[in-house]
Amino acid sequence: MAGKLDHHPIKPLIGSEVSGDPGDLASGVHGAELRRLLQERGVILFRDLDISPEQQRAITASIGPLRGAAGDELQRVTIDETASPEYSAYVAQTMFWHIDGYHNQTVPCFGGSFRPVKLSPSGGETEFLNCYAAYDALDSETKALIDPQRVVLSAQTSGKAAFPEASDAQFAAWRAVPPAQQPLVWQHCDGRKSLMLGVSVSHVADMAAADSYDLLLRLRAHQTRPEFVYSHQWRPGDLLIWNNTGTLHRARPFDPASGRLLNRFTIEGDEPICGVRG
Asked: pLDDT digit string (tens) for 127-153?
């Protein structure tokens, strides 16, 4: 018989610390409860969990199907291009608030798990903000204004943030990626709404440039208020799982020579991004 899954809030509006038997967790018996908790809390954290990469995979897969070919779902999150050339190319952009796969996808990934292999002596925290709570805390006038809006996302916008002194070649590569439009507010299948405002958002479509600038500046300041944000200080033995569809996340700067490395498994998405329904 499986043991009980214990959990308590890390902060009132985001994050829960969870404890359970590693064998039970890997068996999948708690998968449905973990998914429900992720949808409610955005981030769940296990401390001092003695598990193998295979058990990390099994725990993550209990929440939903994994992205990647069978047996090749592990992603190595590192700045070292020899260890992970695909990921290392995007490390600079991950230092800014973002939703994975949001730019031009209809169905972003549901979330995923991180487990540290090697940590930086300083820096390298991972931060998350609750997009549901940020939207809910807006006043009714602002909600009425932003609910129908669509925003333009571009590789150039996120690229310039990460590389303010970019070369002509970098700008040319970014401009070659077509911009996309997404709702500013995602109304989810359960009716809840979340604010969708990552680093790649350039401007509000069909709004005067000055008004768009002011609105996005105000919303970004609002959504990063401390009560909506959890900054995770990594420790060996951590397993952190996050809900990509209800949070933004970012890595904090660290020494590139530190060898910081996290193992990641990604959970496939199953919910399309939808604007607010009338």
From this structure: 999 999 999 999 999 999 999 999 999
Side chain identity at residue 160, one-letter code:
K
- Nearest residue to 189 (alpha-carbon basis) of 66, 273, 103: 273
Flag whether pLDDT at 180 surpasses 60. Answer: yes
Spell out the alpha helix ranges (H) of 77-208: 85-88, 131-136, 140-146, 155-162, 168-175
Alpha carbon distance 17, 34 (integer Å): 11
Residue recorded with tokens 């390298």? 124
Distance of CA 73 to the CA centre of its chain: 18
Q: Are 157 and 201 in contact (CB under 8 A)?
A: yes
Which is nearest to 198 in space by CA: 147, 134, 136, 241?
A: 134
Burial class of residue 12, CB neighbours in 10 A (0-12, 13-18, 19+): exposed
The Cα 99–Cα 108 span in angstroms is: 8
Mean pLDDT confidence for 38-44: 97
Q: What is the pLDDT of residues 8-22, one digit of tens each?
A: 999 999 999 999 999
